């Protein structure tokens, strides 16, 4: 009887076009739109690029120290910090107006910096690059000022000070990270998978509603059936979970192989986390479907509203929403299943399998057990005056 219920639940799922759309097709469509909208935005705005700058040296000026600094910054590595163009002032200004360079270092009695005007289309990137150029100049002026003052007051300490300026101090603690994807846009795909996991609640709600005699004719027939009710529910829930996980897994594989999204960790771990998310989604739907004499439309509305609200608070629509919630009410993030699922993906991407990852999964399973237990209590065998 268990396998009979299991088989027919699988067949039912294949006929439910609405469930398949929300769990299988809708995340695919949304993921494709995400990829089209900001697929390469990180390369354009956040990944480091060598900064083009011009150097204009006034006639009769010999600033060997500054030239040494510029040479080191433009030739130090495979991806140097600066790409320098040595030219006269007129040509340098023309390059600046054409946005060919981000700033002009004018070397005379003193070193000054002239930066390009802000461009609304590229304001953020330009501001970052100008800030880097200003930091270089400020650091150079500070070192020159210190060395000059010491050379005047205590020339004997000059070699010691020069050696200190060449030493790079480290004030942080090195952490071992995974070679994950540091693209900030990856969080949207993680939240998208979390939303797909929550949408599995529709299938769980269907099972609960069609096992209650006062909610559906099918439930009435099952109520008078000699079959063990919880064995029947268990078989259908297992079949539902596997079928819904298959849909979510197809979405993950679509993003990974077709959209070429780098999740920053092994695919089996992503699928395992998605499976735990599906357990959470099906359990939530089973609980909602078990609630009293509430219409099917109302229950579907509850699941859609809760799923989208959880996804919104996790950052699916607004990237920094999760941080805002964390600053005002951290407890919401601690129990929001969409946050727990997406944070598990993020943890795998950056740190790998850690205590934080395990804690997220344990909380998800705990919430799922609570929902499942509450649902089972509400759909237990009841006595009806009439059917």
Give the tags.
387 residues; mainly alpha; D-Maltodextrin-Binding Protein, domain 2; 2 domains; four-stranded mixed sheet; 17 helices
Written account of the structure:
The chain has 387 residues and is mainly alpha-helical. The protein is 66% helix and 6% strand. The chain has a four-stranded mixed beta sheet with strand order 2-1-3-4, sandwiched between helices. The longest helix has 31 residues. The chain is elongated. About 1% of the residues have low confidence.
Overall 3D form: elongated
Q: How many whole angstroms does the radius of gyration measure?
A: 31 Å
Record the strand order, biggest sheet: 2-1-3-4
Average of the residue pLDDT scores: 82
Largest sheet: 4 strands, mixed
Low-confidence stretches: 168-172
Which percent bin holds the helix content?
Answer: 55-70%
What is the helix tally?
17
Record field, number of beta strands: 4
Strand and helix order: HHHEHEHEEHHHHHHHHHHHH
Secondary structural class = mainly alpha
- Domain unit count: 2
Fraction in beta strands: 5-15%
Distance between the termini: 25 Å
Question: Brief description of this entry?
Answer:
With 387 residues, the chain is mostly helical. Helices cover 66% and strands 6% of the residues.
